[in-house]
Amino acid sequence: MRKPVAAALLCLAVLAAGCGAEVEPSSGPEAAAGRTLANCGREVTYDKVPERVVTNDVGITELMFALGLEDRMAGFAMPDDKGDLTDVPWKDGYDKVPWLSKQQLTRENVLDARADLVIAGWNYGFREDSGFTPAELEKLGIPSYVLTESCRNGRTKTSRGIMPPLDALYADLTNLGELFGVEERAASLIARFRKEVAAVEARAPEKRPKVFLYDSGQDQPFTSGRFAAPEEIITRAGGVNVMHDLADSWTTVGWETVVERDPDVIVICDYGDVGAEEKREFLLSYGPLRNVSAIRDKRVFVLDYADLVESPRNPSAIARLGAYLRSGKEN
Predict the structure, then answer these.
(1) Are residues 96 and 87 in contact, defined by beta-carbon separation less than 8 angstroms?
(2) Which residues pair with 121 in a beta bridge?
(3) In the chain, fewer beta carbons within 10 Å around the N or the C end?
(4) Residues of the chain with CATH 3.40.50.1980
(5) H/E run at residue 212
(6) Of all residues in the chain, what percent are helix, strand and coil, respectively (each to 5)?
(7) Whole-prediction pTM value?
(8) What is the per-residue pLDDT across 250-296, written as a single tens digit (0 to 9) for each?
(9) CATH topology of domain 4-197
């Protein structure tokens, strides 16, 4: 659920760069042709500046909008369970760019849109089980860019994450800024985000509460390790991610681990068929958690899905969670 106050905070984060502006004439789109970018540990060369970009999911789509690149987009795919999109700083982008699918991207979506670049991530669109991968797109002559938060790290076949989450956000903004010739806009956004995050860190509580991120799942909770955005949202807000030791981005753990680590606060990721209130009721009534500090004290905070995946909403999420951790109140 997108609240007006949250949207206002987020808009402040992008005002320095402006919303929906044109590509910077100083660098120009032609200057970016033939650029080689470091993406997920490999060097990728793009022969031209893309003009028909297709993105998968809300965070990736809003990276393009935040850079003012909606004119370079042919569409996006996104489930319709990601909150209210009418009250975000990039509403004009959503109004302008076609919503291709309410499922994950498919080869058919990409071909129908005549895409010349696909931006997605592992488990954010790219997946082997359906054959929708950068390698398969390359066979079709369509280049891709992989969301850095989702980079495979080689520890297992599916584990993800190669750098701290905010570094991943800044890396993608920098790369996309370079590719599309909007380097100044990208640098301005990053500088603004760094300043906003630093202001929250400066007010962090002396005693940092332990925080558990609850995405979904009743038999086993789906949560965030140290390479997904919640790691730094929690840390920079003044807390400690109780699953910091997991060298992955999004992953499943056991409830016994949650009980053992006894979080002081639980952050709910709000999306999907099971809403935040239903998730909250489950957590508060789930017997094995009854002695966990966050449950006993009813310290449960809600953030939207788009706040908690890599996206330009991350700094605003840090500010809002930071205010909650300092308040000592229920959500």
Answers:
(1) no
(2) 124, 125
(3) N
(4) 4-197, 205-327
(5) strand 210-214
(6) 40, 20, 40
(7) 0.88
(8) 999 999 999 999 999 999 999 988 999 999 999 999 999 999 999 99
(9) Rossmann fold (3.40.50)
